[in-house]
Specification:
about 325 residues, globular, disordered C terminus
Length: about 325
């Protein structure tokens, strides 16, 4: 593999890290990061292009032609991109979940302010790529805002871990939300009272895996890993399903779909506002200052990311009002 290809995949891995960090916390979406970093359309297109028929090449993997056919098919479906992105997301989720939970528990107002700054700045950045100049797009914007407000208002604290069939369904919704700007998997987990149980379970699963070479305790790995695998399995089904729907919408109603998605992000600002208000009483002057600073830091990170990311692919201002035949295309 050429060094340029490795560099490109490393950049994708880093963007996956950013997406995973975003999806580790309620109120922030990895899809928002995908939009800002210019890989959102490519992500949706790559997921929707996955074809299980590629597995037929495995019957000829012992031959040179079979391996070449498999390699070409995987490259055509952009699987190297998905693997690099996925590895980045998994790395971030595994390493950041505990840290962010501690931040929310110990500095709830400041953490919420950080989320608000990030989402608010992202909305400012992304609204330059859409245009609300038709009744349909106006309707999409209004629907997106109201739906975001509803989802944000429906978040709750965790409860007991759900049954495996329920976890499968929740996983299909939560991991699908990870590709949507403004709606994170953490939001869906809050909605179904599963955020705290699932983050705790993930910590226990990682601990069991780390301890396994020395303890040989397969029971702990199976007990904690089974719900995680079921959850992820449901997520795979959900991601594949919603990716096809989004691909259709982006191909046929590109600007309107982006308008809805960005507006969804705006509506989700209700979550950090509620968290700040709920934890504002009794804050010391130092904590008030920390909360304000955290909001500006969140906004600054997004603005800096936009400033130094040169491959945002939503088009220029002129392309936000394309003729019918050009709007029905998808940027990659």
């Amino acid at each position: 593999m050429a060094s340029g290809d490795l560099r490109s995949l490393f950049i994708v891995y880093c963007k996956g890290l950013c997406m995973g960090m975003a999806d580790s916390v309620p109120g922030v979406s990895g899809g928002t990061i995908a939009l800002i970093t210019g890989i959102y359309d490519r992500l949706i297109g790559a997921i929707s292009s996955l074809d299980p028929r590629v597995l037929s090449h495995l019957t000829r993997i012992h031959t040179r032609s079979g391996r070449a056919a498999l390699r070409d098919a995987l490259i055509e479906m952009d699987v190297p991109f998905l693997i690099a992105l996925g590895l980045g997301m998994v790395t971030a989720v595994a390493s950041m979940a505990t840290l962010m939970n501690a931040a929310i528990e110990n500095y709830p107002a400041a953490t919420a302010a950080f989320f608000f700054g990030l989402i608010f700045a992202a909305a400012i950045v992304l609204y330059q790529y859409i245009s609300i100049d038709t009744p349909g797009r106006l309707g999409a914007a209004v629907l997106g805002v109201f739906l975001g407000v509803f989802v944000a208002g429906a978040t709750k604290n965790g409860a007991e871990l759900a049954s495996l069939p329920t976890l499968f369904g929740i996983g299909s919704l939560a991991l699908s939300a990870m590709v949507l700007p403004g709606v994170s998997g953490a939001f869906v987990l809050y909605l179904f009272n599963q955020y705290e149980p699932m983050t705790g379970l993930l910590d226990d699963f990682i601990a069991a895996l780390v301890a396994f070479p020395s303890t040989g305790d397969t029971g702990a790995v199976i007990a904690t890993g089974t719900p995680v695998i079921v959850f992820v399995g449901g997520g795979v089904v959900g991601v594949l399903t919603i990716a096809h729907l989004l691909t259709y919408l982006l191909k046929n109603y590109h600007v309107g779909t982006l308008t809805f998605l960005v507006s969804l992000m705006v509506g989700s600002l209700r979550a950090p506002v509620q968290d700040i208000a709920a934890n504002a009483d009794g804050l010391s002057p130092a904590m008030v200052a920390l909360t304000i600073i955290a909001g500006f830091v969140g906004a600054g990170l997004v603005l800096a990311l936009d400033r130094y990311t040169d491959d945002i692919e939503f088009g220029t201002t002129e392309s936000t009002q394309p003729p019918p035949e050009t709007e029905r295309s998808i940027n990659h």
